[in-house]
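Researcher: Next sequence.
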Amino acid sequence: MNSDGSAYGTRISLLKGYATHFRKKGSREVERRTTFKPATVSFNEFSLDAMHDVIDSTPGMHGYVDEHFHFREQ
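Model: Next structure:
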């Protein structure tokens, strides 16, 4: 939560294969979802480094919703 009452960030579901970039202020909320192919590994084989590789190579994963509620790619 910011000092102006807005909240923003990114939620990533590694198992379902999507990231949701969001911003909320008052009653206004904007979300943008980016999908990727989820990894099919067991918990014993799970590697956070491998998931970072997937995230880094997926278009649209590196961005945010700005204060004007527009998605900005980084």
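Model: The two ends are 21 Å apart (CA to CA). The chain has one helix and five strands.
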